[in-house]
Amino acid sequence: MNERKTVILVADDEESMAMMLEEALRTSGFDVIRAQNGLEAFQKVQAQSPDLVLLDVQMPVMDGFTACQKIKSDLLLRHIPVMMLTAQIGVNNKVTGLERGADDYVTKPFDLQELIARIRTLLRRTRQGLEANPLTRLPGNITIENEILVRVESRQPFAVLYLDLNSFKAYNDTYGFLKGDEVIRQTAKIILKEADKDRGFVGHIGGDDFIVLTDPETCEALCQRVIERFDAIVPSFYSEADRARGYVQAEDRRGKKTQFPLLSIAIGVVTNQYKTLTSLGEVSSIGTEMKHFAKEKKDKGSSYAVDRRTDKRPL
Length: 315
Hints:
This protein is α/β, with parallel strands linked by helices. The protein is 45% helix and 21% strand. Helix 7 packs across helix 8 (177-196). The chain is globular and about 65 Å long. The termini are far apart.
């Protein structure tokens, strides 16, 4: 199977410049998406999540500064590196770009070889710092930990959702890793769409494990929406025969043939709404505990569990 190429979005209303950039990038091994203005660029970033964005500053409908600011203001998109391109010379323009969240700034005219080198450097630096999951393009563990720490230290109300799929290993063993990867991608899309309604942060820990950071006041409604949408799509992952049976037969971890129910999702929720949380370790420990508590109900389908304890009393 061929590896996925790195995708770069080029936004420039000057056709000759856009064509030159596209040709140079494709020759260097990148895939390219084109946009003719800032609004179209932002919409394509939302829809296709490229690996890097090249934004011209002066464009119709929406300029590059505004498009950059919109990308960097979106919790689901801000991990994508943005490089600004401009014919304007001056410190003020560069400062404006950087203040809007740009990761790098290139003044026209530029040397194409140098531009490609700077793009590769920016991609490498971003991937090292972000650890974006290659399957879903969602932020990985370093970014997830930083996001949780910011909320812990700020003492502002927050909730962390730990999401995991039940019977996923059995599904992978039965249908293969390609089908399993598609389940992961579809699950990520559901979580992203529902979390975005509450401006939540979504991260991918790895495998079938996800994280959402959101408002404690709306976290249960979010859990319910994710469960409803996930349960609605699950039958489409299976053959007609397996759907009719309501289970697949696969080996358990001891090698014994076992009947596994259709996929469901378990969500454990930890929040500082009821008690103070003082460390990343505490958040992780409680969230994992609550997720396991939700997974115990897997025979009954998808479920979620919220930690409402105010002291050390048992659940």
